[in-house]
Structure formats: structure tokens, C-alpha cells
Write a structure and sequence with these properties.
Elements (H helix, E strand, L loop, with lengths): L2 H11 L2 H31 L6 H12 L5 H10 L3 H21 L3 H17 L6 H14 L2 H4 L2 H8 L8
Length: about 170
């Protein structure tokens, strides 16, 4: 039995609920990818990687939070002193998440980057309840092989079965 026949048999066995669930998760993947793409474009327009804009944002956030907490320590100890590097990393991470999720390329790793970004947003004092939802959605992309359902991961995994990038 070939992989194609096996995939067809698995699809035939999967019921309506399974197909609906996969479709919903794929829809979330594309929506989440677009979210990160538009966030990346916004950061480029603001000059986030090459201006003092991130430092201004971090200083404004520092003024609004408890000065004795973990978030203030993270802002003063890491984000503010390294705002240029942080701005570049933010842009690269957001671009990587967008490309990975929209193309189905290294989707599990794109999920890891999205979770990394979400945790760092919270640590930077920009916490609200939506970060919990964004983090849980990112976990879906880490746990589920959505790039194999639809995307480049399936083909690249067939070509490079030992690579951890396309699993």
C-alpha cells in the first residue's frame, strides 16, 4: 500500500467531525499567519528594527506597571538596554511565524516561535487575557501536524524524513 492509498483510506475513515476539526484548525492556522503577517508589516512601517521606537514603547509600558515586578525587571534588565536587537528579533520572529503558518513550512517550529513571542509579550508587561488564547492556539500548531494536512511540510518530510523541521 502506498502513502497515497494510506492517506486516502485514513481520509475515508475520518468522519464529518474529524474533517470539520481539521478544517477549523487549518482556518486558525491561516488566520494566525495573517495576524502575524500584518503585525510584521506594521512593525516595518514603524521602523521597529532600526529606530528608537521600541525603546519609547518599552519606556511607556514601564511607566504603567508595578516597578517591583518581574515585568519591570525584564523591561529594565533586558528589553530597554537591548531595544535595537529586540526590535530586529521581534520582526524576524513575526515574519517567520507568518511565512511558516501561511505556507505550511516548519509549522511546528512556527508554533514554537509564536509561543515564544506570546510569552515575551506578556513578560514585557503587555499582558491581557487574549495572550492566553494566542498561546493556546500556538500550542495547537506545535502539537498537530497541520503542515502535513495542507502545506509544504508533507512534501519536505517525504524528501527529508529524518529532519525535525518538517515533522
Amino acid at each position: 500500500m502506498t502513502a497515497t492509498t494510506s492517506d486516502q483510506n485514513a481520509t475515508a475513515k475520518r468522519g464529518f467531525a474529524g474533517k470539520l476539526g481539521r478544517g477549523a484548525v487549518l482556518g486558525l492556522r491561516y488566520f494566525y499567519g495573517l495576524f502575524y503577517l500584518f503585525a510584521f508589516v506594521n512593525k516595518v512601517q514603524q521602523g521597529y528594527g532600526w529606530t528608537d521606537y521600541p525603546k519609547q514603547v518599552f519606556l511607556k509600558q514601564l511607566a504603567q506597571i508595578d516597578q517591583n515586578g518581574v515585568m519591570a525587571a525584564y523591561l529594565t534588565g533586558f528589553l530597554i538596554p537591548n531595544y535595537r536587537l529586540v526590535g530586529i528579533v521581534v520582526m524576524l520572529v513575526w515574519a517567520g511565524v507568518a511565512v511558516g503558518l501561511l505556507l505550511g513550512l516548519c509549522t511546528r517550529w512556527a508554533g514554537v516561535l509564536a509561543l515564544f513571542a506570546t510569552v515575551n509579550i506578556g513578560l514585557g508587561g503587555f499582558y491581557d487575557a487574549s495572550l492566553i488564547v494566542l498561546g493556546l492556539i500556538a500550542l495547537l500548531f506545535i502539537v498537530l501536524p497541520t503542515g502535513h494536512w495542507q502545506g509544504l511540510d508533507r512534501r519536505l518530510h517525504a524528501k527529508y524524513p529524518r529532519s525535525i523541521l518538517f515533522r
